[in-house]
Input
Amino acid sequence: MTAQKIDIIKFLKLSETIQIADVRSPSEFKFGHIPGAVNIPLFDDKEREAVGTKFKKEGRLPAIIEGLKHAGPLLVSKLEQGLKISNNGNLLVHCWRGGMRSEAMTWLFSLGDVEVKVLDGGYKSYRRYILESLSEKRKIIVLGGMTGSGKTHILRYLKSSGEQVLDLERLANHKGSAFGALGQPPQPTTEQFANLLFNDWKKLDSEFPFWVEDESQNIGSVFMPDTFYLNMQETPSIVLVMDVRTRLPRLMEEYSTYPPESLNASVLKISKRLGGNKTRDAINAVETGDFAKAIEIVLYYYDKAYMFGLKKKNNKNIIYINTDTDEIESNALKILEVSKTLKWT
Output
């Protein structure tokens, strides 16, 4: 059976109501996949390698025969999986380039009377499409502020008030500092992060601005797409300026619950930047339960690093808001009011 191939735009539109079956190998799927897709691999990782080697050395037909040796005994279970996830007898399928693996699985699913549509160009075309989309210039408002300013909570408040928000730290499973992995699930790969980012990006109304938190290009081990990050640097920023003492209670509440060994391991990640004496003082403070002192030592480094980063931005695009409270609603309303004055070039 010849597969009906469709372009990425139609494929993504149909995926809103029809399940995607990603027929690539498990390692390919784990490294990056379309959010919501189900992995029904034609070959496992070793089988894929064997078939690929046969194709390169001997050509298409020997590769097909090699593939049948591996996949043949498991075709029944793969068909059953396809039938289980199909929507009223419909299924979307893709492999890496939209070639042999998609064709083979389309034939298999058709035996169960499943109507299959295949992504033309495969996952490769999806990646090209999303990276081009994420490079588009849109109205972005970057919310900045030193560590402990409550930026994440403010963005959640803004979202609940009807503002458009892209929560980068949620997508990355990381809070952005050396302590950012504490209490978080494992991070996605950089590739999968971009896939998740696009999944939220496509839901935004491009006619209106959206908010993001000020971040480095890397959030933990995850890196933002280059052009998306560069666009963030050129867009207006609102920076909340808050005294250390005002920030301390929130940080103590958030981090004092973690085991001392986890906190100290995080301190050691920035030991070269803190210096030997400050690192030792911070670790001693954690071990004696003096979390306020430990946080102040660490904040000195992060505040200095953040101010250095701000200096590299276009100062004309930065608005500073001074506040003497860490009350989320109050600060959110101040920020929202200022945002009404922003202009984009």
User: Anything to note?
Assistant: The chain has a mean pLDDT of 91. The chain has two domains: 4-130, 135-264+301-339.
